[in-house]
Structures are given as C-alpha cells and as structure tokens.
Amino acid sequence: MRAHLARRGTRRTVTIVALAAVTLSVAAVGAIATVHPKPKPYNARAITVTSGAPDAASAEGVADGTGSTTAPGWTAASSAGPVTVRRVPRVSGPFTAKTAMELSRTAVGPGSGSGWAFALVPMRDPQKFFTAGKVYRMEAWVRDTRASSASIGMLLANGNYGHRPADAAVYGKYNDAGWHLITRTFVASAAGWSDTAVYLGLPATGAFTFEVTGVSVKEYAAALPAKTDTLPEKVVSFTGKAGTAPSASQWNYETGGNGWGNDELQTYTTSTDNASLTGTGKLAVTARRQTVRGADGITRDYTSARLTTEGKVVVEAGSYVEAEITAPVGAGVWPAFWTVGVNTRTQGWPAAGELDILEGWGATPTLAHSAMHMAKAGAPKTDLPYGWGEAGGTTDIRESLDARPHRYGVYFDRNVVRFYIDRKPTMTVWAADAISSGRTWPFGSDQFLVLNVAVSNGTNPVTAPFPKTMTVGEITIHEGGTPF
User: Fold this and answer.
1) Of 180, 196, 219, the domain-final residue
2) Which of 106, 264, 298, 382 has its CA 20 to 30 Å from the CA of residue 152?
3) Do the domain assignments include residue 20?
4) Cα–Cα distance list, 103 to 92, 113, 152, 203 (Å)
C-alpha cells in the first residue's frame, strides 16, 4: 500500500499535446461554469442529460472516417513543416474498414512545446448532429508505424481549436506498430458549428507517421445513474456538543507529518483543535499555523486533521454520496472530500481506486476540482488518473468556495462515475473508455470516506491567514441511484 494512502499525484498538471496554442476560458452552465481550454468561449446552457438509441438515418456524424472515397476531405496543418495526408487503399486490422488515411511529417520542427500540428476530419452537418444534453461516443483506430511513442489525440473542434460542442478529449501513445482503438464517451454541452470537425492532435515537433481509420462519432446509449426517490440508506451525521470529537463509531484519525506523498506541510493530529463538532450538526476540520512535533517525530509548522470511515462506514458501489461543504481558501490551503476503495490495504493505491469529490486549491478560490485515480492495466502501482484538466474536472462556481455551502457529490458503479456540484453533473467517465485507454476500473467495488484539509507546498501558505476551516454538513448515501 502506498504510504498512508498518499493521493492526487497529478494534482495540478494539465498536459495538452500537439495542439494549437490555447488559452483558458469559462463557459456558463447554469450557475456553474466549467473551465476548459479554447480560445473563443461559447454560450453554453444548463443541460439535461439524455441517453437513448441514435436515429438510424443520422447515426454516423463523420463524413468519411476511413478514406473509403477518393476525396475524403481530410486536411492537416503544422507549424513545423507540412503534414502529408495520403489515402492508404488497403489495410487490415481488428475492424471492418479496408482503407485508412496516413498522416505524416518528415521535417523536424523547433524545440519541444513551441509548435502545433493537427488534422481535421469533416463531419456531416455538425450544426444539426449535436444536441446539448445527449450522449455521444467518438472513436478511431490508429497505429504509429514508427512505434515512436508519439502522442495522437482526438476531440471536436475547428482549426482554431474553437467551436467545440463538448470539451472531452482522448490521447494515446504507442511503442509498437499495431492498431489501437482510442475512444471517449461524452455529453454534448452545445450544438455544433458548420466548421466543427473531428480534430486529431498530432505531435508538435519531430517526424511522425500515423495511419488512422474508423473515425466515428455517434449518439450513444450510455449507462447513466438511475433515479431513486427513496430516503438515504445511510446518513453520517455530526450531531453533538460543540467542541467535541466526531463519533468514534464512524470516524478514524490518520496522523503524522510525513508529507503524505504530496510534500504536504502539516501534521495531522487527533486534537479537537483540528476536528470538532460545531454544535449545529456540522463538522469543522481546521488547519492551524502552529509548530508541533508529532508522534512520528516529525516537526511541522501547521496542524490539521484527516478523518476516514475505513472499516466503519462503507459507500457501496451503485450509490450516490454527497455532503454540503463550505471549503476554505487561501494560498496553500487544500481541502478535500473523497473516497478510497475498501480493499486498499490488500490491493494498494491506486489499484483500489480513489474518487476526489471535492478538492479546493486555495490560491484559485472560485474553482472546485474533481478527479479519479485508478491503476494502469497490468501495473497496479502506476496511477493513470482522470484529473482536473478533464472535461468537467474543474468547475468555476463563480464565488469563493468559502462564501457559502455547496453540495458536492458522486455516483459510481461498474459502468460509470459521475460527479456533481449542487446536483448538476460536472465530470462523467465511463468504464469502457477507461479500459480501452489502458486503465483499470475499480469503481464496481465499495469505497470509504475521507475528509481532510492539507497545507500544500505547491503555493506558499505564509501569505494566507490561519486558521482555515472546512465545514461539513451531514453526509448522505443513496443506494441504487441519485435522489434527483
């Protein structure tokens, strides 16, 4: 097991490979906005997610995803020399297509990170094809004939990385010359535009040769959380006298100042100075600036608390769990509400799975983050997360996280994980996509709860006033679906 369930190894790194230069902007979704990279924001609207069988007459959104015609309309551009687009008249692989398209560049471009390259695959009437709230799946078969481990990605955009009906993207890199399927299921947040296409992100620099076929975008009958109108099966409450400890029948303390795998600056304690009931049905988890030498012999300049329900309260797979939380902000402050697989003691991290329902990053006070951690297939100690840079992984609530409480929740089962803020969906990931990208899917198993406020070394906390308190209301667990 990774030391003390250390977590969030990719907490702030967002990598976009081989794309045109982009900026960070915000699109409104009801009262919430999702942060994603694109140069021209569009006016999204609050969406109601639907899923069903596609219309057979318009099931395929891509005009020619295999190069089956002599003029398939694929185009490409690059800042590091021309990209050749060539039809391959005969291919074979684990698909029905008999033709493919080759994308290649022989010129070596400028230094790493200073260029861009992409190809566009035309779509059929994208303005009518996409409907906000519907679920779609995009996929392509790719092979790197050089076996170079260079990255190739797929998303929806025009040549300026704009006009995006969804923010989802998928990337792969391969050290063999075989065929690989890249696929991503997503919820459209807007209709398409006349120039929306399948955008294939290519290596920014250096030589490459990819063959691509089976490029497809279809409406998809994806698994989604069921609706349940029952009362919660479990309620973790915080009733009791102000200043007293939370119930020992529900909560454990994890203590120490070992950095917790993230070079954190606090010592976690069992003191009611760091975790106590408010007397109004809530729990206060408080980080303080005070120098303490913990029982592990490590001296730190901050104290806080980290509480788990391991072995006491279980969130069963197929459940929705949520809490009303007011999260602290300020440089270095890192509050979190999350879950970890109940088999983490035997399976280890990240193989047992982790769902970060809420992570704050105090230096960006209006942003709420969610993430998923799971292992690489065949490598149980290697983390392949869906992180803050995923579509819906970072949400701007348009006010400071400490201004008032918000509801943060997640539903998970063997097919899908969906995060919510104030009961509006943010990030959704399907098991089929994770598995096809070389990940495992541990979320068909039960999880336990974790609450903590860390002090990060990532941004200097010296400028922030302390103490910092995360206030948590009762935690409800609905089995069988979401209550809304």
Assistant:
1) 219
2) 382
3) no
4) 17, 20, 11, 11
Determine the pLDDT at residue 199.
98
The residue to which tokens 């015609």 are assigned: 69
CATH of the domain at 199: 2.60.120.260
- 6 pLDDT higher than 60: no
Instruction: Give percent of the chain above pLDDT 90.
Output: 82
Answer for the pair 474, 237: CB distance below 8 angstroms, yes or no: yes
| Other Cβ atoms within 10 Å of 147 Cβ, number | 12
Report yes or no on 285 lying in a domain. Answer: yes
Question: Phi, psi at residue 432, to the nearest 5°?
Answer: -60, -40
336 pairs with which residues across the strands? Answer: 359, 452
Does pLDDT of 8 surpass 60? no
Q: What is the pLDDT of residue 56?
A: 39
Which residues, including other chains, have CB under 8 Å from residue 96's CB and lie 6 or more apart? none
Q: Give me the amino acid identity at 122.
A: P
Q: Quick one: 248 and 380 in the same domain?
A: yes
At 203-248, the pLDDT tens digits run 998 999 999 999 999 999 999 999 998 899 999 999 999 999 999 9
Listed residues 219, 243, 274: the one ending a domain: 219
Tens of pLDDT along 437-451? 999 999 999 999 999
pLDDT at 362: 86
For residues 124 and 188, the answer to whether their CB atoms sit within 8 Å is no
Q: Is the dihedral of CA 442, 225, 155, 111 positive or negative?
A: negative
In a domain, 14, yes or no: no
Residues 418, 390: contact at Cβ < 8 Å? no
Q: Using alpha carbons only, what angle is made at residue 325 by residues 324 and 327, rounded to the nearest 5 degrees? A: 165
User: Is residue 81 in a domain?
Assistant: yes
